Amino acid sequence: MHIERLQIQGFGRIRDRDIRLNAPITVLAGPNEAGKSTILHFVRAMLYGIPSRSYPGERFEPPGGGAHGGVLTARAEDGSAWTVSRFASREGGSASGRGERLSIVKTTAQGTAVHMTQDDLEKGLLGGLSRDMFKQLFAVTLTELQEIRTLQSEEMGSYLFHAGFGGGAGIVRAERRLFQEMERLYKPRGRVQESAKVLQSIERLEREISESRAYLSKYMAADSKLLETGKSIGETEQKRAGISDRLVLLRKAQDIRPQWLKWKEAALELAGLPEAASYPEEGVLRWHRLQEELDRLRIRQKELEHAEAAMNEQLGRLQPAESLLAKGPLIDRLAARREPIQVRIKELQEFSGEEAALREQLQRLLRQMDPRWGMAELRAFSGSAAEREAVRRYAAGFAGYDRRMESLAWEREQKGRQLEAAEYELRRAEAAYGEKKEDGTARFAMFIPKSKAELLPVWNEIQSAAERWRETRLERFSLQEMEEREAAVDKRIRALYRKLLWGSVLLTLLLPGALWLLQSPLGAGAALALLAAADAGLWLGSRRSSAKAERTSRRHAKSYDPGNEESRLSSLISSLVADPLAASARAEGKGEGRRDAFFAEQDLESALRELRKLVDAWLLWQDELERSKAEALSARQRTEALRHELASLRRKMDKEQGIFAELEKEWQHWLAERELQASSSPETVMDLFGFAEQGMELVRRLDWLDRKMRGLEQEIRAYEEECRLVLPDREESGPSTFFRLEAAERAWDEEKKLLRQREIVISRLEPVQEERIRVNGEIEAVTRSMASLLAEAKAADGEQFLRLGAASERRKELERNIRQLAVGMFGGWPRERGEALRCVLDEHDAASLDEAVKEAERELGQAELLLSELRQLQGRLLQERDDLARLCAQDTALQQLEEQKAALKDIAGQYAVRALCAEMIANTRSIYEREKQPQLLKLASSYFAELTRGSYARVVMKLGDKRLLAEHRSAGLIDSTLLSRGTAEQLYLAMRFALAGSMNGTTAVPLLLDDLFVNFDEERMCSALDLAGKLAAERQIIMLTCHRYILDHVRQRLPQAEIIRI
Amino acid sequence: MVSFKFIHAADLHLDSQFKGISGLSDNIRAYLRESTFASLERLTELAVRERADFMVISGDVYDAKDASLQAQLRFREALDRLGEHGIGVYVIHGNHDPLDGPRMGTSPKEHVHVFGPEFERVVAYRRQDRRPAAVIGGISYPTAKVTENTSRYFERSKDSSLFHIALLHANVDGDPAHETYSPCTRSDLNAAGYHYWALGHIHKRQILQENPHIVYPGNIQGRSIRETGAKGCYAVQVDEEGNVGLRFHELDTVRWFREELAIGGLESEESFHQMVEARLEAIRRERPGEMSIVRLTVIGRGRLHDRLEEGMAEELLHAFRRQAVQAAEGPGGFRGLVWIESFEIRSGPWIDREALLQEDSFLGELLRYGKRAGQDERIRSELFRGALQPLAANGELRRLLAETGEEERMGWLRRAEEMAVMLLADLGPETEGDKESDAH
What we know:
The complex is a heterodimer of chains A (1062) and B (440). Chain A is an alpha/beta fold. In chain A, 74% of the residues lie in helices and 8% in strands.
């Protein structure tokens, strides 16, 4: 952009002024008040609008009124011309820039003029530069140059940190945030930070831990103390036990002292008593008791003797009669039997009456049976069961004989009739057989074999030979037929082959030719070869079939001869039929067949048929003949059998007759043996048996009566014998026997009474005597005991014994007393303690004993006290130890410390991360500032170096701080605020130049410098001018100055500069 | 030889604190404190149940040199319990509980042998028939720092053909993760001619070698995020031929887990919350009957990172912890309780870091600087000194910083970078235009 013309119609003091700016550097020179700054502001106002009334210092209203504004013409980089005409409207008066008349016309290089807006202007002509930027960077007055603020504004910042310096604010923010977080986490000597809390609790825990460390030593101390205490407790307890033992002893001594005195006394008395030999236990008592016993026994003895004498006297009075005494029992027995004997006598009389009656009856019966018989015969005829059986057998034997004879006679008659019938049958059968045989022999005389066995094989052979002959004949016919058929087939095949061969040969000749014509010699050749081969095949085929036909015909050339079989057959037939002539005569058909057989097969066939018929007929006759022969034979056999039977029957009847004669003889013998009448039949004998039985009954009864009577008589006699033994001998037995027996009985009863009395006396006497003996024994024993007592006590007599007894009693009493006292005193005390007690009693009297007890009690009290103290101590120590153990069991301080440390570490980690982050950002920034300065600062540095002639090497910008630093060649980095005014201005100028240079290059906005070099020394001013000259190559520079020397220097140094005086 | 069985445990660290855990409620804290004791009880129960003939404890019975009273009382109880069953106990002391620490004076127990500062050799007997079973050699730390190779004192019993067990608290082959006490090498141990080196000190379970065996059973209860996974002891069965069969038994009451949560692709807090829930549930399923502690490491780059850094992680952590505290007071108690130790944020914002690194911008410069600091120790220490100056003013924090490991410091650095990205990313050059137009 190049400002070409400024037409100021009214702006501040300047009115109607037209300035043309042609050179790259234009110096507007004029004195103060000439309007240099006004021109600067005019340019600003033209490009960005006239400031509103609220900024009167910058509005530059013409003091006299009139038009306020003007026209600015500038040429853009693309060659187009921009004409900006701007006038402040008086009426509007609003604070904004809208109250102005504005016309922006862009005339392109081609001459087209277009109206543009303010925005178009800023973008198209000024490259997007804002008003402030323009004001601060390009249209700069000294005021603005010195204002550090201009470099600190946000917008400037973005320019400054352009090209990678970007994010300065972000970096600051980041750093601020990091520092905040760090502060939250930790701050040295901070109190509220997290770390501070953790550190505090660490401190607390460490204190706790140092305390808990002491637990172990405390525990150990307590433990050892406990051990010690335990030991002292043991000792004290032992001591206390000793004392209390002694105390018990003393108290006991106190208690038993009276008893002890008594005991002592008793002991002394005992010592005084004479040494006694052994005195029987309870001697006196026993002595007295024995004495009493002896007295009592003596009295008893006397009583018994007396009683015995009285009884003996009584016995002497009661003497029994000796004779009666011996008979006594017998008399008793007889008296008892007297009654039954009288009954027996009566029975005897009755039995004799009965016997006489029975004998009468028997006589009668015997007469009935057989007048010869008496008792003896009757007894002999026993009539036993065996005899009866024998009689019955004889009766049966006779009856059986009659029955058998009757049946045999009937049978003989029967058989006789049968024999006659059989004999007739036989005769008839034999006649039939003879007739049949005659007939057959005549009919079949021509057969050579006469029997069936001979004929059948020959016939069978003929049949099989005939079969073979027929077969051969049939075969011959079928062969001929087959030959004919084959020959016909062959002929047809040969014709076919011939036809094919012809067709094929034709093809063989034609096809290759055609192919040859069709220009396919190779194909023709191939076809020729192929077809020729087919021809040859066909020709060979036809040859082969003809050959086969010949072969077949040859095969059946050998013929068959049937004559052989026929001759064989005829010879066989001839062997069967002996007489051909007879045969032909008798059987015409057959004979003819035979004759013809040699000529024609038909004849042979019929001959065979005839022969078969004949043979069949012969076989039939043979069978009939056999049958009739068998019939005749069986009839003869039957006749023979019947004859035999008749003969045996006759023999049987003869035998029966013999048996009957023998039986009769036996019976007569049997009767004679029994002395029976010979005429008696077995039936009468059976009746006799009945009578004999009755008789025997009577006999048996008689016998029984007899025996009974004899027994009774015997009994009565025996009784009378016995009575005689008892009774006095003077009289023989008589009717008075029973009477006398009664008297004897009475005498015996008297005697028995006496005997009973005597027995009573004797029974009383016996115990008295026994008791007397026992009492005597007892007296003796008592006397012996008393003697032994005396002996034991070594006493001469009873008196001495009693004296000794009294002394012994006393000793015993004393001893018991002593023992009782001892038990009372020392009971339950062990031996050695008893000894000790005795010693104490011996040594102390009552007073000193009391003293000793008091002493022991005092000591015991002391020991108890000590012990309880120790126990308490022990309890305390145990408690302490347990407390420690519990405390340590619950003690988690170390873990807590560990946790706090972990927490601290975590915080430290967080802090470290942030601190490191911050540090890294800071370090990177310094690296960046040092090594990675943006283009701008580099440029500024070089400009600054040029301006200061090398005094300052570098311009440094602190990131974020937005502090500008200058690095002096020797003094290092110096903050811009600390530089001298001139140098600072130079620095700022350098920055501006650099900034302007680093603006994006599409638009080179002109620089308007309003007397900026006033504070420069000459040298640096020259440098500044030189620099401006250099920069003018890139952009238009308009300098405003009121100083002549500057102007001079310009003239010298910048020949290209146009100087316009205002 | 006779066959026998023994339990090899080490590093009981009784009454040890759980490191790096905070925000506990009283009862959870009490439970954690009880955990080492509970594990000890399990150890004794195991020995009883397995009918072990004896038990060897290879040092660090107590966590601190001045072992807590509670620890001593509980250990004594455990010994008594083993004694009731006639199980012998052979103990050495290590760097955490050397012999010069204050101990309760207790009457020596017949079944317990505590090795002294000089090498000793004793014979252990089989329980059932009192037959000699093994020769046990051991040596305790007289003071906390033993820098001498004590393994060379171990000598075989020349006239004994029994199985030889060595008890040693040492860092074999110089594991850099642990303090190098009693430094020795595997060949040193092999040279001694012992059959079984029952070692302690390294808390990670490992069988360095077999035949002869060199075994670290690890500690019985994990106590910090550095001790994740199952913890316990070995039941060692030795047969007549001297063949060794090892069986590991879990004893830990509380188990440590480390889980990674990738936030890449996650959009909402809700989904992240669900992811955490799911992960906790998985742990709960793995240890349904016990308490677990988990560190959730957030990785990946995603939009959620900003929100996590801006307090969401903190809020979530508090919410889950509150939940856990409630659960612990509930009927279920500590069964299946999962406590979140922390969210370790290793994620980054949803920005192409690589592109940023290449970019000629303030952030690019910062990240390049961060990278340089990560690589160059000098720059890094400079950076840390400058940044952490204020912290050093406090003694406690100074100590804490001194304890901080390199890895952790690198983590901080990385997180600081991500934070810078988060704070400055929206100030990149692409948003400049907006800024400018806003100015009008």
